[in-house]
Amino acid sequence: MLVLGIDPGNTKSGWALWQPGYKVHVSAKDDGGAMWNDRLLAACRTSPSLSNVDLIVIERMVIYQASQDTIHDTIVFYGRLVEIFSQRGATVKLVKRSDVRSHFGIPGGKGSVDSKVIKALKQRIGEPGTKQNPGPTFGVTGHSWQALAAAVTGYEGWSGRP
């Protein structure tokens, strides 16, 4: 079972390829855990290794007020991802960040929700460890944590999982 989580952005996006019980593979560590969207789209269109992915979970944007063009660019980008994966016959699920937060039992309100989600992921999947002794989340940084959180939320709430 392979799950691809994507945290989309307007120019760069984080991703995490997760096989429950195994090491997490993530986007570039050198740029906040994100990769350029054009590179990610190209990989999604052509990568043979992505044909084995059982579930794609993309964090869905929610607009609560007047928004900037960057938010609309992000929405257009994840729409392109949904189209690509749908054409490849993959199951695609969209989850809101509030769904991720509640899935991990994190109440809304003040404080860093991201750090609480990361802590919950480390407890559920495992600590990063060190370079000499890498753990299952070794190398997960920045936006890749959010992509992994989306993947776990989508997978654990997916009725088609084994």
Write up this protein:
The protein is α/β, with parallel strands linked by helices and 162 residues long. It has a single domain (3-156), classed as Ribonuclease H-like superfamily/Ribonuclease H (Nucleotidyltransferase, domain 5). Helices cover 40% and strands 17% of the residues. The chain contains 5 helices and 6 strands; from the N terminus they run ββββαβαβααα. Strands 1, 2, 3, 4, 5 and 6 form a 6-stranded mixed β-sheet that branches. The model has no long low-confidence stretch (mean pLDDT 85).
At a glance:
One of its GO terms (molecular function) is nucleic acid binding. The protein has 162 residues and is an alpha/beta fold.
Strand-helix topology:
Blueprint: E1 3-7, E2 12-18, E3 25-26, E4 35-36, H1 37-46, E5 55-60, H2 69-87, E6 91-96, H3 97-103, H4 113-125, H5 142-156
Parallel strand pairs: 1-5, 5-6
Antiparallel strand pairs: 1-2, 2-3, 2-4
Helix pairs in contact: 1-2, 3-5, 4-5
